[in-house]
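Hello forum,

I keep getting stuck at the same step: I have a sequence, I want structure tokens, and every attempt I make locally crashes halfway through. Rather than fight my setup again tonight, could one of you with a working pipeline run this one for me? It's a single chain of 148 residues.
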Amino acid sequence: MKKQQGFTLIELMIVVAVIGVLSAIAVPAYQNYVKKSELGAVLATVTALKVNVEDKIATAGSFPTVANGDIASELGASTTSLGLLETKQKSSGTTDGQIILTLSSSTQNSGKKLALERDTSGTWKCVTDIVSTASATYPKGCNNGTIF
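Reply #2:
Ran it on my machine without issues. Output:
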């Protein structure tokens, strides 16, 4: 009688097939998780600027327009490695506008934008230009919308 000395080829092929099936499920789920966590970080970064923008509106009477290089001096906020941070007025001299973060090329959603939009009544809402087929990766309460 001989003792079994190892695994058969069939057993090894079954293990490889099981690992392939598991990775086919796990990789897309992980990529969606990374996208959602990046957008959560973007939303947190943009939300942190709401107070500073409201302060500027109260003192200046209009929504501040700030490019990425002036964020620190104008709003007291630092730049972020997630992408380009800016604010834009909807129309000149009004109190409505958007705080926009354009994601950098090092992120999963490269070139996409997420913004908090303020209307003249002071209500904020989250808008993004990420296609609706990827809505599973949106931060909670964020919808497709126009970013100016």
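The chain has a mean pLDDT of 85. If your local run keeps crashing, start a new thread with the error log.
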